[in-house]
């Protein structure tokens, strides 16, 4: 980023004439979207950057979070990052038309896989976090218009983003492999492990009076291996183990439930979306997290579970090896019996469960949102 960094405080919507070209503008469209993994990462980045600025890191940096009219800034409680609503539509229109008009020559940071095409084509300084390209592999999870739009934008991202950012070494290699070796330089900024980098609450002692439950956190899609999640859940429920499934149920969930016996169905619970307090409690009290995803750029739920001392069983994928190391048990994601076997190993061996819990808590300390924010800011502002 070139030129003096300017702009601070909160301001009403205004044009770029009043803004210095060197400021960092953060695309806040994520505040208007459902809080799935990408949006949670964006929120954690903003909060981490705020903490760094409050503590005096990057003393010359001033940043502004801009979002469509109606976006809610209050829960972020920002003091050092300015916030601003930009009137002019919502969704893709706001991001592709309103945002680039405002950003002008400022360095624009987009944290959610997309950026304004107009800015990329014009060669404006746009940094983009590209989490994954799962739409290419798991086409059934995405509509044709979605895939075509991301293909077009992705073409320019890998050629024009300054810089392109991703969240794991494994994903960086996958991006290059899918794009003919481009870009040669990728900034790898790993995700953190727990909300706001706060110390995780202590894991409660097992309640011997309460039956154990196995947890799954994530969507019910092909990419998340929904068929084998359900197959494993049915077997475990048949063992008498409660299975709690966190995420928004869809038609496939209802169809599966209808085919279960009353005894098995009684052991299966769809929680829907949960708030942070509920998610904390679920991780803290679960006997095990099962996460047999077929594709991940990083894997946020296993990291969160490990931070809270919950043993994890994950797919044997390079990216999850990169993330979890020796702190997890690994299953064959193409074999539901492998998943069930590893979960049974945890449930049946308290010593193993305790060892995984301790290793997971230690492993999770490697990753923090503040380190991610430092990596990104230093890539944007090399002199900082």
From TrEMBL:
KW Transferase (keyword) present: yes
Pfam families: Glycos_transf_1
InterPro entries assigned to the protein according to its UniProt record, in alphabetical order: Glyco_trans_1
Coiled-coil regions, chain positions: none
Annotated Glycosyl transferase family domain residues: 211-362
Keyword annotations of the record: Transferase
PANTHER family cross-referenced by the UniProt entry: GLYCOSYLTRANSFERASE WBBK-RELATED (PTHR46401:SF2)
This protein's name: Glycosyltransferase family 4 protein
Source species: Novosphingobium decolorationis
Organism taxonomic ancestry: Bacteria, Pseudomonadati, Pseudomonadota, Alphaproteobacteria, Sphingomonadales
């Amino acid at each position: 980023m070139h030129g003096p960094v300017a702009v601070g405080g909160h301001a009403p919507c205004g044009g770029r004439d009043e803004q210095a070209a060197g400021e960092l503008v953060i695309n806040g469209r994520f505040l208007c979207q459902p809080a799935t993994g990408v949006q949670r990462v964006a929120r954690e980045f903003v909060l981490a950057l705020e903490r760094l600025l409050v503590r005096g890191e990057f003393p010359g940096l001033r940043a502004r979070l801009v979002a469509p009219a109606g976006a809610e800034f209050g829960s972020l409680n920002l003091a050092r990052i300015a916030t601003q609503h930009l009137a002019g539509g919502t969704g893709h229109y706001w991001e592709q038309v309103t945002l680039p008009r405002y950003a002008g020559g400022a360095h624009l940071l987009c944290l959610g896989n997309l950026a304004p095409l107009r800015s990329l084509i014009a060669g404006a300084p746009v940094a983009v976090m590209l989490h994954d390209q799962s739409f290419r592999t798991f086409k059934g999870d995405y509509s044709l218009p979605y895939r075509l739009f991301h293909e077009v934008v992705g073409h320019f991202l890998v050629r024009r983003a300054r810089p392109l950012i991703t969240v794991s070494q494994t994903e960086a290699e996958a991006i290059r492999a899918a794009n003919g070796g481009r870009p040669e330089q990728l900034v790898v900024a790993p995700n953190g492990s727990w909300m706001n980098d706060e110390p995780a609450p202590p894991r409660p002692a097992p309640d011997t009076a309460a039956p154990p439950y196995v947890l799954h956190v994530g969507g019910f899609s092909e990419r998340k291996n929904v068929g084998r999640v359900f197959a494993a859940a049915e077997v475990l429920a048949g063992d008498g183990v409660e299975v709690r499934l966190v995420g928004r149920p869809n038609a496939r969930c209802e169809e599966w439930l209808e085919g279960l016996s009353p005894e098995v169905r009684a052991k299966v619970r769809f929680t829907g979306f949960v708030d942070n307090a509920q998610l904390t409690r679920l991780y803290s009290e679960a006997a095990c997290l099962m996460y047999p995803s077929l594709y991940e750029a990083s894997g946020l739920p296993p990291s969160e579970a490990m931070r809270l001392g919950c043993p994890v069983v994950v797919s044997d994928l390079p990216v999850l090896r990169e993330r979890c190391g020796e702190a997890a048990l690994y299953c064959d994601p193409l074999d539901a019996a492998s998943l069930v076997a590893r979960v049974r190993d945890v449930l049946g061996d308290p010593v193993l469960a305790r060892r995984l819990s301790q290793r997971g808590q230690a492993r999770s300390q490697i990753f923090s949102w503040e380190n991610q924010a430092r990596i990104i800011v230093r890539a944007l502002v090399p002199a900082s």
